[in-house]
Amino acid sequence: MSVLSVQHTAKTLLGESLIYLKQLEGEDYTRPISLLSGATLGQHTRHYIEFYQCLLHSATHSEVVNYDNRKRDFLLERSAVAAIEAIEAIVAQLQYDEDWVLQLEQSYQLGQVLVVPTTFSRELIYNIEHTIHHLAIIRIGLKVVCSDMPLPEGFGVAPSNYLAVRAR
To answer: Considering the entire predicted model, what is its pTM?
Structure first.
């Protein structure tokens, strides 16, 4: 088994996410999907993009990583083109020391935060898992809005599940 870098894995996954974005028609990206509780493909896309942007901004500016305080750019959920551009920018920026120590801040109760040490690579792994989760939801949504869109076999499937199913 070969060992991949976390940054390479993130870049590959983000590259795969461009597959559906480049095929979507405008209204399919913004159409509320009842199966997804009225959420849109654009909303799920914006969500995972913003987590990467938050991590990169925090790392670049030596700030505490706090995903709750991320910038919310609603253009990303209204425009697949804007989402594509944002993903391409993220991929271009993913060039950090994976062992770089950061601080992660998370709110769990009103007025109380938990601050823990973390590393850039650990947060990138979190972002990869978070993206796979949203791509799984997006895959379901794509079956509703454009059922004939070709997607790779493992799109939106956690690698461990994908490998277990293929081994059967």
So the answer is: 0.90
